[in-house]
Amino acid sequence: MKPPVKFGLIGAGSIAQTYAQAFDGWNGAKLAAVADTRPEVAQAMAETLKAAAFTAHQAMLAGGPPLDAVIVCTPPDSHEAIVKACVDRKLHVLCEKPFTLDTASARRMVAAAEAAGVKLTMASKFRYCDDVVRAKSIVTSGILGEIHA
Asked: How many helices (H) and strands (E) does the chain have?
């Protein structure tokens, strides 16, 4: 049996709660560390998950448990710096959407991940849900006419 993939979670807001639930009972992965600027929030989530808590992603990356990947659930204006710090440490990254605020920063993030030889992807979980796929098909078929908004 392979050891579980060890994840760090950066940002412990509402979307991070969904990720935390996804780890519950999954033997293939473990949430090993949680970082949030609000100490009480990071600590509460970490205790629930039996993970280490940090008040900054820098502290988690520098002194936390060994990680294989991170999930970034912070405001989009912080994504570039956080992703860069993670890929510099050769960690794979799943970044919540919106990926970043502009094309230039998205390109820098992708280039940094490619240079580090790690995977970087944006979360788009609903893209593959049956109802979303069907809705897209209806819209692109033209049956609804020209859609303006």
From this structure: 6, 6
Q: Alpha helix (H) ranges present in the chain? A: 14-23, 39-49, 57-63, 79-88, 103-116, 130-141
89: three-class secondary structure by DSSP? coil
Looking at residue 125, its pLDDT comes to 63
Q: State the Cα–Cα distance between residues 87 and 110, nearest whole angstrom.
A: 10
pLDDT at 148: 78
Going from the first residue of the chain to its last (149 residues), give the mean pLDDT of each consecutive group of 10, the final group possibly shorter: 92 89 85 96 93 97 96 96 98 95 96 98 75 83 83
Strand order in the sheet with 5-10: 52-54, 29-35, 5-10, 69-72, 92-95, 120-122
**Of the candidates 66, 105, 75, 65, the residue with the CA atom closest to the CA atom of residue 11:** 75
* Spatial separation of the C-alpha atoms in residues 107 and 53, rounded to whole Å: 31
